[in-house]
Amino acid sequence: MDKSKWRIILSIGAGAALLISIFAIAFRGNLWILGNNEDGSDALDKDKVVFITKSTNSAFWQSAYAGANAASAEYNLDLICEGPDSEEKYEMQNQMIDEAVKDRADAIILSAIDFEANADAVNRAAQKGIKIVVVDSPVDSSKVKCYIGTNNYEAGCMAGKEALSNQAKSLKIGIVNFDKNTQNGQMRENGFRNTVMKDDRSEIISSINVKSTVKDAKQGTIQMLKSHPEINVIVTFNEWTSLGVGYGVESLKRGKDTQVIAFDSNVKSVSMLENGDVDALIVQNPYAIGYLGVENAYALINGQEVKSKEIETSSILVTRDNMYDEKSQRALFSFD
Can you tell me where the transmembrane regions are (predicted)? Predict the structure, then answer.
C-alpha cells in the first residue's frame, strides 16, 4: 500500500477518534447535567417515602404494606416501611420520624399511636419541608396534608347497628377498647355508643381500655365476663383486641351466649367467625390505605394538590351469613 493511501486511512481514523472523544465528552456532560442538582445530589435518585405504622406484624399492616409497595413501584419511589413491635410505643414512632428527617425523606406516611404525643415529631418533620400524610389514625397537627382511612365514627355506628340487630329483650353491653390516646379507637367507640344508646334495650355494663395486645385483651375480657356474667354483647375495635376478646369468650365457653362484634380480619379471626366465638367483623381496606397513602405522598412531593384533605376508604360488615359472598371474601383476604 502506498504512502498516500496510508495518509488517507490515518486521517479517517484520527477524525473518527476525535468525533468519538467529542461525543464522549458531550455525553459525560449531559449525564452530569441530568444527574446532579445544584447541591451536588443525584437528580436521578428516587424520591424517598417512609411509611411508619403502629406495628409491623399484623395482617392489617401487612396488607397496607402490600398496597404501599404496589404504589411505590408504580410511581418509582424509594419506600421504607417500618414501625414499632407493639402498638403502644409512640416514643419509637417519634424516633423513626426524627430518623426519617435525618435521612432526608421527602414524605412521611404515619399512623399515629398517640394523637397528642406524636404531634411534636410530626411538626418538626414538616418544618424541614417533609410532606406529611396520615393514615388510619389521626395526629394532632395542622401540618398534615392529607388523612386517609376508614371513617372511624361511622364504622363504630356500623358496629352499633349490628348490636341492635340482636333480638334479646335487653342488651347488656361490654366494651373492650385499646389505648385511650389512639384517636381511631375512641372515634369508633363514640360512634358505637351513640348508636346503641338510641335503643331503650341497651345498657353499657362495663367499658375497659387495655393494651393493644391479644394477651391483655383476653385477660380483660375474661375478667369482665366473670365480674358481669349478665353481659350478652361485647364490642371491640382493632385486630389485636378482636383476637383477645375471641379467645376470652372461647375460654369461658360463652360463644353461644355472647354476641361479639369485632374489627379487622386475619386467619384466626375468620376462624372465630366460623366457629361462633365472634359474630361479626367490621373489615376495613388496609390495602387501599397503603396504596392511597403513597399515591398522595407522591402528589405532594411533586407539588400537586391532593384531591381531598380527607379520603375515606371502604369498610364492610361481615357475618357468618355473608362471609362466603364474593365481596366479603375479597375484604377478608385482601392481602392474598
Answer: 6-27
Stated as kind and residue range, the H or E segment containing 19 is helix 3-35
Largest CA distance in the chain: 116
Domain-by-domain residue ranges, the chain?
Answer: 9-35, 48-149+286-313, 152-283
**Cell 426519617 appears where?**
100
* Rounded CA separation 246/217 (Å): 9
Residue 100 CA, distance from chain mean position: 18
The CB density around residue 324, as the number of other CB atoms within 10 Å, is 11
Return the C-alpha cell found at 30. 449531559
The pLDDT score that the predictor gives to residue 45 is: 82
The pTM for the full model equals: 0.83
Beta carbons within 10 angstroms of residue 268's beta carbon: 16
**In a 3-state reduction of DSSP, which class is residue 15?**
helix
CATH number for region 48-149+286-313: 3.40.50.2300
Ranges of the chain with pLDDT below 50: 1-43, 336
Q: How far apart are the first and last CA of the chain?
A: 74
Q: Say what the pLDDT of residue 5 is.
A: 44
Query: In this structure, which topology does domain 152-283 adopt according to CATH?
Result: Rossmann fold (3.40.50)
Q: Do domains 48-149+286-313 and 152-283 have the same CATH topology?
A: yes
pLDDT tens, residue by residue, 169-215:
999 999 999 999 999 999 999 999 999 999 999 999 999 999 999 99
Query: For 248-265, how does the pLDDT look when each residue is reduced to its tens digit (9 = 90+)?
Result: 999 999 999 999 999 999
CB burial class (10 A; 0-12, 13-18, 19+) of residue 109? buried
